[in-house]
User: Fold this.
Amino acid sequence: MTIPFAVPECRVAHLVERHDDSLVVPVRLDAASGRCPECGQASRSVHGRYHRHPADLPLSASRTTLRIEVRRFYCRNPTCRRRTFAETPLTLLTLRARRTRRLCEAQARVGRACGGAGGARLLAHLHMPASRATVLRLVTHLPMPDAPTPIRVGIDDWAIRKGSRYGTIVVDLDRRRVVDLLPDRTAPTVAGWLERHSGVALVARDRSIEYARGASLGAPQARQVADRWHLLTNMRQAVERWLAQPTSVLDESEAAVVSRVEQDDTAQAVAGLARRFTALVRAAGKGKPLADDQDAAADIVAWITKARTCEASAIATFASGLEADIAAVRPALTEPWSSGQAEGQVNRLTLIKRQCYGRAGLDLLKRRMVLAA
Ligand SMILES: [Zn+2]
Assistant:
């Protein structure tokens, strides 16, 4: 009878023994000889035997442990420093491991989906218990996939600790996947990442100087696109700054009259500019630039020229900023790409971060974002 229970590199001696609440499967290693890890010479001279008891996948809804009979061989190579060595079934488990590789993988997958504490709770029900710390360690050791270098990326910042520490999220815009999480939002970090991933042709980003500099340094060949969502946010902030400005040094009633008179014209100009700007950006967001690329580009340049002479200094400053970043602002109105996807992924990231009660390290978050994508 063949036993329908396969253990890599091993022969199952007989099926199971029950020990309290768990099953034990006695197995022997398949190989006729061992190979010295020091010199590589094969040996059949057995020095002794001992047992290893790694936990394995559950069997028939019971916690399961293997009892592996391990042989210790003599190394007969006279020039070798080693006298004896133990055989190691490396596909089954790593050196000194207390759980098989396939169990590690199953536990890591549960941890990746449910987080440390949630994973530990679910694993207890699935008869392959592991502590929260173990689950987290297994997830951080999951290998990252060999994803193809993205061609178009969106980058955005996310709060590692709100108000004090920020990281960067990198999204593959074509594959709609998170590719990486970076530990900060500085130009050198972004540049370094882009250098390691040569071939990026387009970077959609917000209008921070650091990201602009990082993209120029790390991927000078790439086209930079200012993100439309951020453009609209920046416009709104400029209007808010203008509204918040103290009017003058006159007393209150005088100031109110003067500001009404003065601001009626300015207010109209500001409202008109804001409406026009929003229309320009929104039209591009719908994938239908106002007319063709040329017109959209001409429109934004005309808008900037007009806004720079605006009485409201907050708006004029915003327009000057746009002009300085025109190489990225222009394609925002003509290219379909935007880092809006990164925004969505930041929301997902925040959710996962909360699920880990804010204690998840960057490595763990990266794996949960990238591998579960
Ligand atoms: Zn040897």
